[in-house]
Amino acid sequence: MNNDVKTFSYLAYIGPLCLIGLCSDLRSNGDLRFHLNQGLILFLCEVAALIVHFIINSLIGGITLLGLIPALLFSVIGLGSLVLSLFGLFNVATNRKTPLPFIGGINIL
Prior knowledge:
Blueprint: H1 3-12, H2 18-22, H3 30-60, H4 68-93
Helix pairs in contact: 1-3, 3-4
């Protein structure tokens, strides 16, 4: 993997920075395409989780004890997202194309 492909592959696992690789002329590279797909799926799952969190928080956030549920849920999802990002970054560093657990089987690109 050349340096440009590796750089864009690293960026793919850092939230919205995955969109930078989608705009590059290297996106037809098989390795980069794989990591862009994984990063984009992860980013979309993060956005969906954030929307669900806001909905749940707006519905039950004002209730004292039930208000802890959205905060706990968001913390668990955030930790899971961090672990998946680190897994993806490790795959780039070791030149592997291992799909992310749970969401790696989804293909957009």
